[in-house]
Amino acid sequence: MPVLVITGTGTEVGKTVTTAALAAAAVAAGRSVAVLKAAQTGVRPDERGDADEVARLAGAVTADELARYPEPLAPGTAARRAGMAPVRPREVAERAAKLATEHDLVLVEGAGGLLVRFDDAEGGTLADAARLLGAPVLIVATAGLGTLNTTELTARELRRRDLEPAGVVIGSWPAVPDLATRCNVADLPEVAGAPLLGALPAGAGALPPADFRAQAPAWLAPRLDGTWDAAAFRAREGARLEPGGSA
User: What percentage of the chain reaches a pLDDT higher than 90?
Assistant: First the structure.
């Protein structure tokens, strides 16, 4: 897949760290990688954005960013309040397509969830950019209670728009998962209608970059250039989940 779009079931679900893990695993597999942040919000011009953070963690990747807005708001709102031009889905698609001519893999990271608007006037979203690209969309989801609803809604919207959900990655897997979290290992791929393709340990983004790069392939399935085994993970993390058992 030359272009992979990464969306989340909401904000602060681990999209950027997951994107970094995807990039690190691909680089380790010998692929050239570019990361495109469609719209960066809540960051000053002199601060590091999400694409820069991916490059810091993943290493030798091309980091690109279409637009940056100072307030931590939805891109369309942030652009309007700053009096700046909004991002258009076609601009995202064109930049990603150009990067794809120069790299083996382009990772396009959205802002917030799938339908967060890039602009107020036209209502363009990451889903529109993915459709222009004809690219699959990876869903980054939370691990615990409430994730099944938001994951299913995201997957259903992708299919309604004739987009392919590439799979689901859990953006932050806790060291001590509770009952709901363990049950979700089995339930997430069911509600998404797409495979579970990885789980990042909580705090992965705080690892030293060298450790992050060395460990990243173990968090992702072979389809994402990793070595993570969904069946083994489910067997291990789903232990003690027989009916009537304890968590």
Answer: 87
Termini Cα distance of the chain: 38
> Phi then psi for 58, rounded to 5 degrees?
-90, -25
Query: What would the pLDDT profile of 225-234 be if each residue is shown by its tens digit?
Result: 999 999 999 9
Indicate which residues carry an active-site annotation: 37
Radius of gyration of the chain from Cα atoms?
17
Q: What are the C-alpha distances in Å from 40 to residues 65, 89, 119, 150?
A: 7, 14, 13, 23
Listed in order, strand segments (DSSP E) in the chain are 3-8, 33-37, 40-41, 62-65, 68-69, 105-113, 137-141, 165-173, 196-201
Q: What pLDDT digit, counting tens, does each position of 16-36 carry? A: 999 999 999 999 999 999 999
Nearest residue to 78 via CA among 114, 26, 43: 43
Confidence band for 246, pLDDT divided at 50, 70 and 90 = very low
SS3 content of the chain, % helix, strand, coil (to 5): 40, 20, 35
Longest Cα–Cα distance in the chain = 58
User: At CA 205, angle to CA 199 and CA 206, rounded to 5?
Assistant: 130
- Give the Å distances, CA to CA, from 192 to 3, 140, 205, 231: 21, 11, 25, 17
Q: Helix axis angle, 179-192 relative to 147-160, nearest 10°? A: 10
Q: Which residues contact 190 (CB under 8 A, 6 or more apart)?
A: none
Answer whether residue 240 shows pLDDT above 60: no
Structure-token pair, residue 197? 């393709």
